[in-house]
Every structure is written in C-alpha cells, then in structure tokens.
Write a structure and sequence with these properties.
Elements (H helix, E strand, L loop, with lengths): L8 E7 L7 H12 L3 E7 L5 H10 L5 E4 L4 H7 L2 E2 L1 H6 L4 E4 L5 E4 L2 H11 L8 E5 L3 H12 L4 E5 L3 H14 L3 E3 L8 E4 L15 H5 L3 E4 L8 H8 L4 E2 L1 H15 L7
Parallel strand pairs: 1-2, 1-3, 4-6, 7-8, 7-10, 8-9, 10-11, 11-12
Antiparallel strand pairs: 3-5, 5-6
Helix pairs in contact: 5-6, 5-10
Length: about 260
C-alpha cells in the first residue's frame, strides 16, 4: 500500500520463510479499500533475530502488534507477558498485541476463524459432533473453540496417533465434552486442519458415507483453493467452507484484536 503519511500503523508478519504468505497482500487490499493509514509488512526473520525484534517492537510507537507464522508461534508464546486460555494451553500464538508498557499479549485465532466461517455457512456448533483431521496447532485451536461453542463431541484424527491422544487430553482438561481419537461412523461437521489434500499429499481420511451424512465440510487449506474434500462435499449438496473463508474470518478477528477494525 502506498502512503504519504508519516504516522502509518505498521503491522509486521514474521516468518522463516515468509515470501509464501498471502496475508500482507490481503490485509493491504483491505486497508487500501478503506483508505486506512496502515500497512502489513512481511519480515523474513530467522529464530536468532526474534529477541532483537521484540526489543525493538516494545519501543515502536506506531506498531499496534504483529502477526506470525512458522517457525515462531511457540517461541512467541513463551515470550508473551499475557496469553489467552487457548494460546496458553496449546503453547502457540499467531497474533501479538502491544499493551501498556510494551507488554506482549498473545492470542491464537485459527479456531475463531474456522468456526466463524462454519457458522456463516449456516451450520450450528451447539450440540454438534465434529471430526477434526489434524492434531497440530490449528486443529487444537479449532477443537477448543468448538468446545467453547458447546459442541457435543469431537473426534481428533491425526497421522500420528500419539499426537492426537495428547491433544485430546488437553481438550478434555479444558472442556466438558466427549473427545475421542477414533473415526466415527457419522458426524455433523468435518474439518480438515492438516496438510492432507495439499499438492502431492493424499486427501484426508473421510470416507464418502461420512461426507454425505455431514451438515458442513470445511478445509483449512488454501492451496488448492478447491480441494478434493470440498468438491466431494459439494457433489453431495453439503455446505463447504474453503480455507480462504476461514482466513477472511480470522483476519477480521486479528485486526479487531489489534485495534484496526473501524467502528461505525
């Protein structure tokens, strides 16, 4: 985004690498459309540069906070002065806000973004049975937020059964609902929060009967935009939520957290 202003709010996004991240382009399109004096800037930052960056950002007067992707999510969670309950339980953040005195306040928005998008499709989380493929940070955040929205049951599926079991224990410790690590015969909402279905990878292990019986199918992948899972859902007339829809909902939450959403 071009600007002639000197007080531009700068929102860095950290990664190593970061060239593949679409967030700066998407956020800057939003700022430009609004005429908002803000810019999102990618920072290709190795782990050795994280401490110097944090020292700088605590003193910066026009940086309301920053975003992060791999490999810094866990390190930044340890560096934050305050964490949300989800970020604390999972040990990761993807958004950090600068508070009073340069305090770092961390949050993880993957769960909010996915479930906001699912609810916008018309699906109801309260009382729902979910299957989540992927027991990483995104799958964990989605599971915890589903529990917050009163889901009835969650099945966590992962290529690494031990990782699925460890996440299931964390979710059980935080919420009163049934959490399993076995693929059920039926479910209301299916979510892929894993690399399954990305170029060169096999699709997530949802059989056709499970897809056909669902009320909503969602995929966090953005490449490809229309995954095999989403295509299968649409063939059965099932509402399908794409990764770009999750990303848009998540971005709105992130900008609000950083104080960048304009109020009417």
């Amino acid at each position: 985004m071009k600007t002639t202003q000197t007080a531009t709010q700068v929102i860095p996004i950290l990664g190593d690498p970061v060239a593949q991240v679409a967030t700066p382009r998407l956020w800057n399109e939003v700022f430009h459309a609004r005429g908002q004096d803000a810019v999102c800037v990618p920072i290709d930052l190795p782990s050795a540069g994280l401490d110097p960056f944090l020292s700088w950002v605590r003193e910066a007067r026009n940086v309301p906070g920053f975003l992060t992707t791999v490999p810094h999510k866990a390190s930044l969670a340890l560096a934050c002065d305050e964490l949300s309950a989800t970020a604390r339980l999972l040990g990761v953040v993807n958004t950090v806000r600068l508070g009073e005195g340069g305090a770092l306040i961390g949050e993880m928005f993957d769960g909010h973004g996915m479930l906001d998008a699912i609810e916008q499709s018309g699906a109801t989380l309260a009382g729902a049975r979910l299957v989540i493929c992927g027991a990483g940070a995104a799958g964990g955040a989605i599971a915890l937020e589903a529990a917050n929205r009163h889901a009835e049951e969650i099945a966590l599926i992962d290529a690494d059964p031990e990782r699925a079991s460890a996440l299931a224990e964390k979710v059980r410790s935080a919420a009163r609902l049934r959490v399993t690590t076995e693929m059920p015969d039926g479910a209301d909402i299916l979510v892929n929060a894993s690399p399954a279905g990305s170029p060169g990878a096999a699709p997530p292990p949802f059989v056709e009967a499970l897809i056909a019986g669902a009320r909503c199918v969602a995929d966090a992948l953005t490449d490809p935009e229309e995954t095999a899972l989403l295509k299968a859902a649409r063939l059965h007339g099932i509402p399908a939520v794409a990764g770009k829809e999750m990303a848009a909902c998540q971005a709105e939450r992130m900008r609000a957290f950083l104080g960048l959403e304009q109020r009417n």
